[in-house]
Design goal:
With 148 residues, the chain is an alpha+beta fold. It has 5 helices and 6 strands, in the order ααβααββββαβ. Helices cover 39% and strands 16% of the residues. It has a 3-stranded antiparallel sheet with strand order 1-3-2. Bound molecules: zinc ion (2 copies). The site of one zinc ion (ZN) has 5 residues, from loops.
Length: 148
């Protein structure tokens, strides 16, 4: 499919292009949604936003693209304490891992970065002989507004 698009590609696109992954308009739209998301989105929310950019996108295209991004380590998949049933949430992977705090009453999600989490991973690698590919810490509790 020829591209007339001259926009500057985002980080995901550049990364995938370097690895020879074919870029389609549909994929480009889905990457765009994930890259510019300001909150954690589930697959249904990604689908709705992507369809505004390209109405031909369907659910399986979204899942295939999420699978591709996961395989390349570009996104993390979270369940956020299953506050919302079985939904999984996706976010672009940042340079540093962050901890997710989920309020079990109001559903607020807070992201928290700590050096201690980095130390814990180092300790695991050293003492268990692991090379960590994914580390995830989710905490459920009551936020400052909801705690009694
Ligand atoms: Zn709360
Ligand atoms: Zn997050």
């Amino acid at each position: 499919m020829p591209f007339a698009n001259t926009e500057i590609p985002g980080k995901f696109q550049a990364f995938l292009a370097q690895r020879g992954i074919r870029m389609t308009e549909q994929r480009r739209a889905i990457l765009n949604v994930i890259e510019t998301a300001k909150k954690h989105l589930d697959a249904g929310q990604i689908l709705r936003r992507a369809r505004k950019l390209d109405p031909s996108i369907d659910r399986s295209t979204v899942y295939r693209t999420l699978g591709l991004l996961k395989r390349h380590g570009l996104i993390d998949e979270l369940d956020l304490m299953h506050l919302d049933g079985e939904a999984h949430y996706y976010e672009r992977k940042l340079n540093r891992d962050h901890i997710h705090l989920a309020c079990l009453r109001c559903g607020r999600i807070t992201e928290f970065v700590s050096d201690l989490f980095e130390s814990l991973k180092e300790q695991v690698e050293k003492e268990c002989g692991y090379r960590i590919a994914v580390a995830r810490l989710e905490i459920g509790g009551y936020c400052s507004k909801c705690r009694t």
